[in-house]
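Q: Could you predict the 3D structure of Glutamyl-tRNA(Gln) amidotransferase subunit A, chloroplastic/mitochondrial?
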Amino acid sequence: MPSTAGSRLLENYRPPFDATAVRKLRESGAIVVGKTNLDEFGMGSTTEGSAYQVTANPWDLSRVPGGSSGGSAAAVSARQCMVALGSDTGGSVRQPASFCGVVGLKPTYGRVSRYGLVAYASSLDVIGCFGSSVADSGILLGAISGHDKFDATSSKRDIPDYASQFVAIDYLESKPLKGLRVGVIRETLEDGVDSEVISSVRDAVSHLEQLGCTATEVSLPSFSLGLPAYYILASSESSSNLSRYDGVRYGNQVFGDELNSLYGDSRAQGFGSEVKMRILMGTYALSAGYYDAYYKRAQQVRTIIRNSFKEALDNNDILISPAAPTVAYKIGEKKNDPLAMYAGDIMTVNVNLAGLPALVLPCGFVEGGPAGLPVGFQLIGAAFSEEKLLKIGHIFEQTLPGCSFVPPIVADE
Ligand code: GLN
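A: Sure. Here are the predicted structure tokens for Glutamyl-tRNA(Gln) amidotransferase subunit A, chloroplastic/mitochondrial:
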């Protein structure tokens, strides 16, 4: 099957091997039914950045499914498949999960091998799991996790039996989450976030309290630094990673009279504008004279963010935020305003900078579209605490009153 990463440059490219995550799925008996659309090389938040198609959101076909793994989220939401993989460098599994009303799990950095994943920013990239339930996404995680000799950053930790965490509703005690300390991140429920999103997330927190949790507000003063640091680091790493697409080693080639024009023309015609902008930004941030002011500074901010999450997670079992400041945008709404599009990633990028696991699950609706638009909230845990996140998420979704997250496109059939 071709792997294009949403890029013209890789049109018709057929990889010679399966990624480790896919190999493991096939070995456990999974049937791979297709590959899904995405923003070119994972760069974007709406899937409009694909060189091929615009993917629609099954809740409202005039809206985007989110991105960059929007095709995977839409496919699961529309019940075209049971589960799907995506890649989460700065939120590309969690934000589309939120926009499409499905579950999106971003594992701890290193939990899943990146071997065979098309690289965007290697210190942030993680393969993540979409499902229409927490249980499905947990089962998927169990199947793809583990050490891999082909990825030196993959962890040697044992793989927990994630499915054993799931207790069916009839067997739950009356306060099944008694004693669990939940920290609600103050900076994520302030100005710039839609009021309806804030109230849905606050309702989700009340629901967790009814299940026995104690919720308190926590402040992460460095939270807003995540966005600029992320865009510097992700662009820098991508400028290096994407240098391999030179028209010789991979994908489409534009013939030139001499080598430099072969490289240059292949890249000029193969890459889309967003990718070119990121390569320029990253090359600039890494260049002599600017390196200290941008790349090094962003790395320092990354350490501050990581430490502030660690401290907050020493005092709380999990942290909570919205998955995105808004519900799904209209197609075209943000396409020509990259900064507004980047700003929509504020809820997710910090988690990648800190390397932590996070689970996004639907918690309610706001008005819009033919049947309302889903809102997702995010549970963030300490490194390698996926078991805990899945357990909480499973209890949450089973006990959430009166919500069905099946989109109208399927419900009508
Ligand atoms: N929207 C973010 C970006 O464009 C995140 C992308 C991702 O996680 N792949 O970089």
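Q: Anything worth pointing out?
A: The domain at 8-411 is CATH 3.90.1300.10 (Amidase signature (AS) enzymes).
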